[in-house]
Amino acid sequence: MFKSTYISVFSLVLSHSLLSQSYFLNGNATANGNNCYSLTPNVAWQNGTVWNAQQVDLIEAFTLEFYMNFGSSDANGADGMVFVLQTVGPNAIGNAGGGMGFQGFNPSFGIEFDTFQNTEINDPVGDHVAFLTNGNVAHNNANNLAGPVQAISTQANIEDGQNHIVKIVWNPATQFVELYFDCVLRLSNQINLINSIFGGNPNVYWGFTGATGGMFNQQSVCLGDYLISNDIPDPICAGSSIQISSSGNPLGTFSWSPNSEISNTSIQNPVVSPSLTTLYTCTYTDLCSQQFTSNVTVQVENYPTIDAGTDTFFCSGSNIQLNAVSLESNLNISWTSSDGNIFSGGSGLTPIVEDSGTYTLNVSTQLAACNSSDEVFISEVPLPIIQLQSSVWLCPDETILLNAGQNWNSVEWITNELTSSISVDEPGNYAVTVSLDGCESTASVIVNAVEMPIIYLGPDIEICAGSATILSAGLIGAWSNGQAALNITIYNAGNFSFIYELQGCTAEDEIIVTAVVPPIFDLGPARRFCAGDTIFLEIPYDGIWSNNTIGSEAIFTSSGTVGVTVVNDVCSVSDQVELILQPEPVLDLGDDLIYCLGAPLTLGELDESIDSYLWNNEEITPTIEITQDGVYSVEVANECGNSMDSISVVFEECNYYIYVPNSFTPNKDGINDYWFVYADNLTKYEVFIYDRYGSAVYMSTNNFEPWTGEVSDGDFFVPNGVYIYQITFETNTGDAGEKRGTVTVLR
Length: 747
Fold this sequence. Notes:
By secondary structure, this protein is mainly β. It is built from 2 helices and 60 strands.
């Protein structure tokens, strides 16, 4: 509620600390120094504004005191200044002339100090004041909230070059605005500033506008740096200092009591250093000689008395509870450590820590945060380290030694033995507890029984010399030949051992391998025979022949692969030989031919079953080339007989041409790599090439297409040898013909 004390009515809430207020200048406004500002110079058509940087909260009451100077020109002076509350911002500026820089602000509240009569807006004759809103300076509408009244009731002119004291009071409880001019109340009106003027927004900027028109004056205001002290000062610790303040204009007077433990009793914001909580009273006299009193209580708190406890130790792997003591309650407690770790309870007097280190107890009071600290050192004793394996293996029929180490204060095994080492011959879990320097450790070792398999390689064996056999152990282990495998293959006689290892335990066996010499014989190379002949085969051992004959010899009368197997103890030796039936020689020279004159003709073919050739022209080669008419015959023979064939050849003029090479060398050396049939005046052409067995290996209907030796529809080439070609054709005169011969492939 609105009180009569000055601190209540002078609570311009800009900050809760001691702040110097700053101002924004716009338009023609200038700073004159000592917190004085010219809104307009003594020049026509000027416009300036000065705004406080901090907004005022209309929920709080405030009182403002300042000096205003309206210039020295009365009859020709104009136009005046306005105290303004607005939400536009610290850079706002309105219209010059009769609007006094206030015109144009909406929403706004203004207290005008008008020094020129504008009859069109119902201005009175004398210099006057009025409450206005929304930037409207006319007195004949609803925006005129109070006034106008003469600024000084006893005189019409305030453009006298003098500084006039102006005081503005706002009481949000009663919603009254009061204006004092030269310490005389001139206007008072109840106005709902927050809701009616500013739409519910309590935070507004405050400052001054001023303007000139065709007539002018230098118009200025002097503003004090108001110190705000509504809040109770923060509590302080004993022996500390704090600055306190009283609301009011710095140009007024201040008197503080008591006068002890205070830096200056006659300034607005002295520094005090009370040893106990103290109530300070300030009497403030404003520029109008009105006195106000205000009280400031400085609360003093003492530093807490604490003890972090006695230095101690704990065993590694555990933790320890600290036991600090404090004589006060309701304290803020925290622990810090540069090298340790607070496990839990770090905000109490008995935290649990789990690392060695120096722990600092920090205790502060709730209000002034007066802090006391104390340290305690916690050392960590390492647990005894037992050098004991987690598990060991016990081989069959073996005893092992378990050793927990030396130099312990005490040792106790789960077997109740109190010695550092014990001997065990049974599987189980053996635990041991040792103590050293007040700390105990327990470790255990599991003794596992190893179940070893029985290794048996079998009885000693014989093998056939030069053959292989497989020795198997049934498990993967180490053989005497250096292999680590389940089975090994051996090719010679000897003693062979196998060792199997499991968890350091071993099992082994040995086998003797003896070599037996195998029988040696050879049936020889392939044999040829004629129809009706018999083949006699013999070896130096009895064996089983492929025709089921048993003995050292056998007789065969048909072709094929035959063999014999001889078994000698562990050796079984076999051999084979191919029996080839040699056919009687046959050579077919084909039908009689009429051949083109001038083109050589090849007769005959190479047949491996023929041993000799004899032509009637005394040639003995498999093939002959002829160029003349005649009857040609050949007699062929081998060891099984002979035969003869003949052919009549007539050469005559032809209207076509065919030349067939009798050999080529497809070895990709760039010389004679292709086989071409050279032909002319043919309308149809077809060539087949056959191997010695009569199988076609190549076919083409294009005599311009070369043969490279490949097999048609295949991805391989024919081997070296003699191949038979057969060419059928038609000439361009409709004659048909055939040409046969051989071509030899040589690489």
